[in-house]
């Protein structure tokens, strides 16, 4: 389960890479470590325009499945997730690297994965929704309001991620055509992107810290 990622490129590079028409984020610094329940940038499409905005990471869980926010979504056939798979509720989550934890002793070690050592931008295949309630990181004061929440799809692990986390990996989108398909195509076409990235298209780039900057 991916519960830590980095979005460490500049605001201007995110806008250019994802062909953003409107930026609502204000002053967006690089984010070398994004954790669940934190605010992070996403790109969604509305009225034919791509909008860069801030949303909070983690959907409310399905009924009777506990209280923790759901950061990763695998079972897209579930009736709980189906309404949020329509184009209006899909988004791109800008990423430069993501982390899975190696089962080392005495404590687990973050292992970072990216497209290559230079950590170019790519996107998680995200979904988003409005939700009213109390949310926010524990070290901050949680806020009761209408939040916009996002999560992202996972799939089976490839040969790069699998030795560290064999159960799953995020769905990575790396081209403008994939980004367009995920934002705008019908669900049956967009969900064909829920597959592991080929091994040769990514690499392990770091081990250790709970953040990852540009090398």
From TrEMBL:
Keywords: Covalent protein-DNA linkage, DNA damage, DNA-binding, Hydrolase, Lyase, Protease
EC number assigned by the record: 3.4.-.-
Any single Pfam family the record assigns to this protein: SRAP
SUPFAM superfamilies associated with the record: BB1717-like (SSF143081)
Top-level taxon in the UniProt lineage: Bacteria
InterPro entries associated with the record: SRAP (IPR003738), SRAP-like (IPR036590)
Gene3D superfamilies: 3.90.1680.20
Family membership: Belongs to the SOS response-associated peptidase family.
This protein's name: Abasic site processing protein
Originating organism: Methylobacterium indicum
């Amino acid at each position: 389960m991916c519960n830590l990622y980095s979005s460490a490129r500049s605001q201007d590079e995110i806008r250019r890479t994802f062909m953003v028409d409107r930026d609502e984020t204000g002053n967006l610094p690089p984010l070398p470590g994004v954790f669940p329940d934190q605010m992070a940038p996403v790109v969604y499409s509305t009225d034919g325009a791509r909008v860069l905005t801030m949303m909070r990471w983690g959907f409310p869980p399905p009924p009777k499945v506990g209280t923790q926010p759901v950061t990763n979504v695998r079972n897209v056939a579930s009736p709980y997730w189906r309404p949020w798979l329509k184009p209006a509720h899909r988004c791109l989550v800008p990423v430069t690297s993501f982390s899975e934890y190696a089962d080392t002793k005495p404590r687990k070690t973050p292992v970072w994965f990216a497209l290559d050592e230079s950590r170019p931008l790519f996107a998680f295949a995200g979904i988003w929704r409005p939700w009213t309630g109390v949310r926010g990181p524990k070290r901050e004061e949680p806020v009761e309001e209408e939040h916009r929440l996002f999560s992202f799809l996972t799939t089976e692990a490839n040969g790069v991620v699998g030795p560290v986390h064999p159960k799953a990996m995020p769905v990575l989108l790396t081209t403008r055509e994939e980004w367009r398909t995920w934002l705008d195509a019908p669900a049956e076409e967009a969900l064909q992107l829920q597959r592991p990235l080929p091994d040769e298209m990514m690499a392990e780039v770091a081990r250790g810290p709970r953040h990852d900057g540009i090398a």
